[in-house]
Amino acid sequence: LPPFTLRKLAGCTLFITGASRGIGKAIALKAARDGANIVIAAKTAEPHPTLPGTIYTAAAEIEAAGGKALPCVVNVREEQQIIKAVEKAVKTFGGIDILVNNASAISLTGTLETDTKKVNLMMDVNVRGTYLTSKTCLPHLRKSRNPHILNLSPPMNLNPMWFKNHCAYTISKYGMSMCVLGMAEEFRGEVAVNALWPKTAIHTAAMDMLGGSGIEKQCRKTDILADAAYCILTKPKSFTGNFIIDEVLLREEGVKDFDVYAIAPGKTDLEEKKLSGSQHEGAKDNAESAPAKSSPVAETFRVIQGAMSEEFVKSTQGVYQFELSGDGGGTWYIDLKTKGGGAGFGQPPVTADVVMSMSSDDFVKMFTGKLKPTLAFMSGKLKIKGNMALAIKLEKMLTQLNSKL
Questions:
Q1: CB distance 342 to 350 below 8 Å
Q2: Which of 12, 117, 170, 268 is the most buried (most CB within 10 A)?
Q3: Domains and CATH numbers, the chain
Q4: Tens digits of residue pLDDT in 334-343
């Protein structure tokens, strides 16, 4: 950890809505590295069928990063749940210094295509939830040395083009921005209130659901918003009423390289490897460099290949690439997209939806049921790039496979 003087959020208590995954969690982890206390106010207590993470897995990651975590089940549509979580936070950590209103519902649909249930959800979570959470935290924020409210919402631009394709969603997000406008003025000199919005799409599980596979290529990592949020939350409370775009702020702060935030920077990982002359050198891409047939990794893939079925392929519809280090390592793949499927050594026949990097040993443990993928991912043994929803599908498939391995 950096010297104490640089840990600007050490000992601060952050109340973050929707912090079990995505942007909320990224902001939480950034503050946790300073030694902050994080209240994870989110509604996922049980694992979600398609989205990664619960308040408890987020809590484990926050503690591992150096923070203190308080997971609270909060659906911001329920005022009582907000009040209870705020009381618990104050009792546990002695106060609240920062509120991040990140929880949001999204439906990018036209007026006639948006069912009333969705309209209610967006208005309830985005506008009303933000308003009530701010209201409940404000008495405690006023007692803090350097209190901040940060809403993840856009600058208000009344150009009709921002409304015409998804009127209800824009109204609900602008509602959050109006909270910034009003509360910044109302609590000027007492509590800083600002809005933060990304310049480009940000890659989260929600984004995968909206955009489908391939969307991540046009996205940036959640880190860019975490870095921008950190920047805002460490400013004095006189910095208030601002509508901030992540890249604009970070440029002002002296950041020059924005490629680090790209999901798909100038070059893909594979090209990088080819250039650095590692195992992907042209000549070695043929079968000669395939690991000895007897290695545990090769054995595991042989079994996977044998267990392939139309059923697996139909229900998964994904291509997985494994970058394995150590014995029997190299590039391997499981294709559960093309007819009949396939698995083996080398590049997959089509571009992979998910790339997983880990050691050969951990890979074999994972496929024989000795290591849970979620645990491997959380402890940093497994790195995942690409479509998270598909990565989760693989876990389901593993449970079916384990009986055969």
A1: no
A2: 12
A3: 13-275 (3.40.50.720), 296-403 (3.30.1050.10)
A4: 998 888 788 8
Catalytic residue among 131, 169, 174, 320: 169
d(CA 192, CA 139): 13
Q: How far apart are CA 3 and CA 166, in angstroms?
A: 47
Chain segment 49-70, per-residue pLDDT in tens: 878 899 999 999 999 999 999 9
Q: Provide the CA 256 distance to its chain's centre, in angstroms.
A: 23
Does the pTM exceed 0.70? no
What pLDDT is stored for residue 303 in this prediction?
Answer: 78
Q: Is 47 exposed, middle or buried (0-12, 13-18, 19+ CB in 10 A)?
A: middle
| Sequence-ordered list of residues with C-beta below 8 angstroms from that of 314, at least 6 positions apart, any chain | none
CA distances from 243 to 97, 154, 174, 177, 377 (A): 20, 7, 11, 8, 35
Rounded to whole angstroms, the Cα distance separating 42 from 105 reads: 13
| Those residues with Cβ within 8 angstroms of residue 368's Cβ, 6 or more apart along the chain or in another chain | 300, 402, 405
